[in-house]
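Summary for the lay section of the report: proteins are chains of building blocks that fold into shapes. Here we show the chain for tRNA-dihydrouridine synthase and then a coded description of the shape we predicted for it.
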Amino acid sequence: MASNFWKDNQGPMFMLAPMEDVTDTTFRQLVMEISNPEHLHVLFCEFMNTDGFCHPEGRERVAQRLRINDSEQELLNKTNTALVAQIWGTNPENFYQTAKYISEHTSFNGIDINMGCPMKNIIKKGACSALIDQPALAKEIIEATIEGSSLPVSVKTRIGVKEVVTEKWISHLLTTDIQGLTVHGRVQKMLSTGQADWNEIAKAKQLAKELNKDIKIIGNGDVLSLEQGYDYIDKYDLDGIMIGRGIFHNPWFFNTSAAPEEAKTRLDALMRHAQLFSETWQTEKPWNILKRFFKIYISGLRGAGALREGLMLTKNMDDLNEVIENYFAVNVGE
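The coded shape description reads as follows.
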């Protein structure tokens, strides 16, 4: 079996969560470029549907979630950062086939099974968080993925669907041969509202200890700074922290507790991200996907409101260059 980053990492691990239309190869590379590798250990790709991947007409469309640019791969190698493919679905055979393909034809370091996405259109299919109420199928999916993979397999999940069932559900997952388990401290019906319950996440670690299972337990939910992350690792006795929405509060999350104040540093990062996106996807992905990121780079800058209005009207790199040049012309001394 290939090297197992779950076993090789002895200290606390910090991870960037899988997020749809967010954690593609370009954003992952940008985050690595502005992060301290001592504080960023694992990156996850966008979650990919196994049913679509195993369908002849769907593979090309969904497989773009597995794209790894050469420049990203070089940076992963240089920083010794692990990259994990996350997959979802309901058919164990498709998990087996997808895991086999990822293991044999890509450079990912692990495979993660999405049992946590709370979106209603996904739940209706019986996938992701819905698997919490289908423990037998969930176990079959895990076993099929492990059988098809030469890479370490992990799971990301929640603490329940409509009500908290941490002990029953997590104990069930811990009977499998997964290497890592990320627990988001909300039930499915909460989506992203309310507060994540870290005491329930701590229960997962305690259960692993009681069952004498050498499975890394990662906490997820509402961590907005590196300092808070390290504090939670100690407070709740965890093996690591996964960051999701926190990266939208500060793209420099894995580098410092606060984003740089200098406009040039912020806008250079925005331009770098846009350049990577434009060169990588060209006509495969629409420019509008980038617009969800603009705010995170400019928040707090002088004239941020007017700048954002201009950025939202852009359609390509030329437009972006013009808007940013105009911003600096007006905001002299930034």
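Put simply, here is one thing we learned. Residues 263-281 form the longest helix (19 residues).
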